[in-house]
TrEMBL record:
The keyword Methyltransferase applies. CDD domains: AdoMet_MTases. The keyword Transferase applies. Keywords: Methyltransferase, Transferase. It comes from Streptomyces mirabilis. This is Class I SAM-dependent methyltransferase. Residues 40-129 form the Methyltransferase type domain. Pfam families: Methyltransf_11 (PF08241). Residues 246-271 are annotated as: Disordered. GO terms for biological process: methylation. PANTHER family: METHYLTRANSFERASE. Residues 246-263 have a biased composition (Basic and acidic residues). Transmembrane segments: none annotated.
Amino acid sequence: MIDYDGEALDYDASRGGEPRAQATVEALDRLLPRGRCTVLDIACGTGIVTRRLLRPGRTVLGVDCSQGMLRLAARRVPGGVVQGDASGLPVASGSVDAVVIVWLLHLLLDPVPVLAEAARVLRPGGTLITTVDKDDAYFVPDSDIARVTAEARRQYAPRVPDHCARVLDWAARQGLVEAGETEFPGTGQGRSPRSWQEAIQAGRIPWAGPDRMTGVCDGLAALPDQDTARPDPLYRVLALKYFGEHTRRRDSPRPRSRPHDVSDPLPPGRA
Ligand SMILES: C[S@@+](CC[C@H](N)C(=O)[O-])C[C@H]1O[C@@H](n2cnc3c(N)ncnc32)[C@H](O)[C@@H]1O
């Protein structure tokens, strides 16, 4: 896991800045409930997205485990962020209308405790919205880097914690129903073949580990326009609707219920 405390000051600029945050919120808004509602932003980071979720009638709370990230978020959403672990949220059960999780699941060894917590805090009828397949976002259809990296990524995909099929499988067993899907662009984040090779050689790309590295790098080196950035990544976002405890399949474990550190975590009337 990245040291987000250390990364906090560089985070926004290195992840597409305000244009990326705006594109993210436009995508989330296509899936969020309309009108008065409470929204929990799990792993809110610097609050760059959280702040843009605020609307008249919508109460928004951000949760993150990193003090460094939260310090920045608290400036953007005063009184609207708390420190907490996504696998043990300081939020009452059945208390929010929607949960958003942007760019967290791919970082986890096991996404299930976090998804279970998200389901626990949702009201029946509530919506869980999460990014999935994050590391595959760069490989938009018809891109040449998608083609030369396809086999390495295909072999690696089943092990990815935010693999869409894996999230949907968990959701089905918990009684959550797929309710929509959209995507947002990582504005300015497209990479050139040369920058991919450098990242692979530096060991920063999990699907191109030592065993697959040579073949993938040879393929990338053979592409034309070595320093031309390819299309911006398109990040996939999934919405799941939670219909309550009774819809959970009998063979599935109940989500962990935890004591609530915060009895009424949402500041009233935040818009
Ligand atoms: C890639 S950043 C995403 C931030 C934000 N959602 C955004 O779109 O800008 C991942 C965030 O997840 C937080 N995080 C990682 N593990 C966490 C956990 N177990 N509980 C809460 N936050 C966590 C990190 O501190 C970091 O702020």
